[in-house]
Design brief:
Helices cover about 40% and strands about 10% of the residues. By secondary structure, the protein is an alpha/beta fold. A hairpin with an 8-residue loop joins strand 1 (about 5-15) and strand 2. The longest helix has 28 residues, at about 660-689. The relative contact order is 0.08.
Length: about 700
């Protein structure tokens, strides 16, 4: 029976009185694949399977042959007669399914069905489906991410060795016995996509240095590893002090920092290496040296510490505790909050704001607006949400807009993304393994589904490509939720092109919040739609931003649409995205939002039909301020005078109320705009220098 592409065979090897060949000794005793294939694999890999001696330790071994990949979990074992031996549980499958990142993620060997009684099992075994492996691989990858910093010294030494001789086979010393998998994980995370033609074969511990292994780890040199002139033997803790070591130190530091930051930062080093022109023809050491310039440049704007401008964020009114940590990468939103200390001259206008209790009371006041233009009203809330809306609060400041900033509560999303309990590692680019070719007629089955249970069964059986096709079609909101849940479950196994396709789809569909959606049980609440859209940005778009795989202009246009949408859920989604702990938005997006803040009541945006238009809608030229029906902070509407006046007149048009709250909002907006302009100009001058 032919093995399906989303299945792997399993084999158990041990010493037995009656193995597959009918003889006594070490060999296969239980398997799920064809017997002749099992015999062939045993002949090829027997030396690795039989490892014995006092240096024998549990090991994870990955071999790659033309027939596929053999992933082995080898553990010491004592047979019935008390002899020391090993027992091996192996998986055999395609290189696309058992790719290196998945294999390393399975290092704990806790996948569903792995708990066989290896000492007793015999005969026929079931095949293992992909769904049984991926959750374990995701957990294992997250554990490797978290533990990588503890192997920083060994990883640095291994990176230096690879830079010195990328074509070599390596035998690395691992006296601790627990650094092999983290080191392999770090190496693959940085260099796996740069050398896709080189097979990532390894043994996390071995006593025999075989040519089939690109990376082998040993516990000690003497007696444990044979001399093999074809291999490069090194203790990764040694420091020769050469150029390769200096570059390795910096690469590892960048990689660890990216892991800690998340949001796709774990791909930063690999992306920088791939971005070097002619990387395929340069020595790896030179490629890495050039990549450092890219990494050093891109790190500066992202880092919260080196960035001097308006980052010191005061505690938020509604969420005092989390707020101080909010600084990474959100210079524009927070600027209005600094109260008296920042802009003493605006103290009078800001004095009510420090009090959380006051804000809700001011919500209704902006609404009684003077007669001037109801039409400009819709664009107005654009100004208010992103400079000041906190991510969680229902919105003291959210009610300040006259344009009806409804109080949309923040609720947990249903589309929460891949279950990971933290960061989840996605396979790097170049791995095309997915069920894109699987055709089950999902789109038609969903159209004919009578209830959610029937739709759920169809979604789970559908191919990867079919899931995306179904998301492009109008669906009841409940069916969209089923599709998103299945996409999130499979996402860790998708390659970069598949994730980019999902990202483009999500942006093209406006995060599934702007267009009206049918529903089986009535329209979903605004809060649910907003939370789902913000979550979708977090796990489907943000991880690709750092790798440069997101159309930034299109994303900026989408966020602009959300900000100015007449739909409260869309505006709430915008606020949740930009006020997230790390929105990860590029500088170009912030620039677009700033230009629109300057553009004031220019062209109303509520009817923008398509977020797919790449360029931002507002044109940048109107720096000083739009002179529309400008009302100065004072009651009389002055003419559009100098930049300060006109700038203040723009934000006040929609917020001024009889009680003077309009003046407060106006001055706050003026402060925001002035500070942002100063910051961006300073940043551009610094970057240009």
């Amino acid at each position: 029976m032919v093995r399906a592409e989303n299945e792997v065979d399993q084999i158990v090897f041990r010493w037995d009185s009656e193995n597959l060949s009918g003889s006594t000794g070490f060999g296969p005793v239980a398997w799920s694949g064809p017997a002749d294939e099992v015999e062939t694999l045993f002949r090829i890999s027997g030396a690795l399977l039989r490892a014995s001696g006092e240096e024998t330790r549990p090991a994870l071994i990955r071999l790659q042959q033309r027939a596929g990949v053999l992933l082995i979990r080898r553990t010491p074992w004592t047979d019935a007669e008390g002899r020391s031996a090993t027992v091996c549980h192996a998986l055999v499958g395609s290189p696309d399914l058992l790719e290196p990142a998945t294999c390393l993620g399975l290092h704990a060997w806790d996948w569903e069905g792995a708990d066989l009684p290896l000492a007793d099992v015999r005969g026929t075994l079931p095949r293992v489906r992909e769904e049984a492996l991926l959750p374990s691989a995701g957990r294992g990858q997250a554990a490797l991410d978290l533990g990588l910093s503890r192997a920083e010294a060994e990883l640095t030494g291994a990176v230096a060795e690879l830079l010195r001789d990328p074509e070599a086979r390596f035998t690395l010393l691992d006296e601790r016995g627990d650094t092999a998998c983290p080191v392999l994980w770090g190496l693959h995370g940085m260099f796996g996509d740069l050398t896709p033609d080189r097979r990532w074969t390894f043994a996390s511990h071995d006593t025999v240095e075989l040519p089939a292994l690109r990376f082998a780890f040993v516990g000690r040199w003497a007696g444990a590893a044979s001399r093999n002139t074809e291999r490069r033997r090194a203790d990764p803790r040694e420091r020769p002090g050469d150029r390769a070591e200096a570059i390795a130190v910096r690469l590892v530091q960048h990689h660890l920092r990216g892991l800690a930051e998340g949001d796709g930062g774990e791909y930063a080093v690999g992306a920088a290496l791939r971005s070097v022109p002619d990387a395929d023809h340069l020595p790896l050491l030179e490629t890495a040296a050039r990549a450092m310039a890219v990494l050093d440049h891109t790190r500066r704007p992202r880092s919260p510490d080196p960035t001097p401008p308006p980052r010191p964020l005061p505690p938020r009114r509604s969420e005092p505790a989390p707020e101080p940590e909010r600084r990474p990468g959100r210079m524009p939103e927070r600027r209005p909050e600094p109260r008296p200390e920042r802009r003493p001259e605006r103290m009078p206008e800001r004095r009510p704001e420090p009090r959380p209790e006051r804000m809700p009371e001011r919500a209704p006041e902006p609404e009684p607006m003077p007669a001037p233009a109801p039409a400009p009203e819709p664009p107005r809330p654009e100004q208010s949400p992103w400079p000041r809306q906190p991510p969680g609060p229902r919105g003291p400041s959210a009610a300040d807009d006259a344009r009806g900033r409804e109080d949309v509560p923040v609720v947990p999303p249903v589309w929460s993304g891949p279950e990971d309990g933290g960061r989840r590692r996605w396979p790097a680019p170049g791995r095309a393994r997915r069920r894109a070719r699987l055709e089950t007629g999902l789109v038609h089955r969903l159209a004919d589904a009578r209830d959610e249970a029937e739709a759920d069964a169809a979604v789970r059986a559908g191919g990867d490509g079919e899931l995306l096709d179904a998301l492009r079609r109008p669906q009841p909101y409940e069916f969209t939720t089923l599709l998103m849940g299945e996409v999130a479950r499979r996402l860790p196994s998708w390659d970069r092109p598949s994730r980019r396709e999902l990202c483009d789809l999500v942006i093209g569909q406006g995060l599934f919040v702007t267009a009206p959606r049918t529903s089986l049980r009535g329209a979903p609440a605004d809060a649910e739609r907003a939370a789902n859209a913000a979550a979708l940005h977090r796990w489907a778009i943000r991880p690709l931003l750092d790798a440069g795989d997101v159309p930034v202009r299109t994303l900026a246009a989408l966020l602009s649409e959300l900000r100015s949408s007449p739909d409260p859920a869309a505006r709430a989604a915008f606020r949740q995205i930009v006020d997230a702990e790390r929105p990860g938005l590029p500088e170009e997006v912030w620039r677009t939002l700033l230009r629109e803040a300057y553009a004031g009541p220019g062209a109303p945006r509520q009817s923008t039909p398509r977020h797919q238009s790449a360029p931002p809608r507002r044109s940048p030229p109107q720096h000083p301020a739009p002179p529309p029906p400008g009302r100065a902070p004072e009651a009389p509407p002055p003419a559009p005078s100098p930049p300060p006046s006109s700038a203040s007149s723009s934000p006040i048009t929609y917020a001024e109320g009889p009680g003077g709250d309009g003046r407060i909002i106006a001055f706050a907006m003026v402060a925001v705009i002035v500070v942002l302009v100063v910051f961006i100009l300073a940043y551009l001058m610094t970057a240009g220098g």
